[in-house]
Design a protein that fits this description.
alpha+beta
Length: about 160
Amino acid sequence: MDRQEVMERIAALSDRSFRAVENTVRALEQMKENRYPFLGNFLNVEKEESADPDVFVCSMPIVPEVLNPYRIVYGGVTATLHDMAMGWMLEHRFEPGSKFVTIDMQVNYHNPGKGKRLKAEARLVHQARELLQVGCEIRGDQGELVSTSSATFLQLVRKESV
């Protein structure tokens, strides 16, 4: 598809579909400013203040693009918020430039994701060298528990050259 064909197809979209394209363009532009990955920008994930220094808090709005046919947040989107919150928490907790990858994650769903926002609260549970166990809870804007997760992250350590 060339640029002209893309523009013509965008012009023919419904208002709702056009908003998704607008959000995509905004997310791509924000990547240049905040250096955060596309998906976090697309989902509008934002860091929030936490009263507890051991708890990292972030949230995202619930918008039509993240809803499944039953009008609740897709489970995969909720799992993505868990993964982002836990990874982001580790990046804030450790020295700048530290890198972490998820090597295992378990998500339990308790209630449907609905309302206006989902809020994630992540905390470090245990660390053994480069392996970190992290827990996270996601709640809806009325305080209802939507899902819980636990994950193991690997801290990527640069090996010294010999």
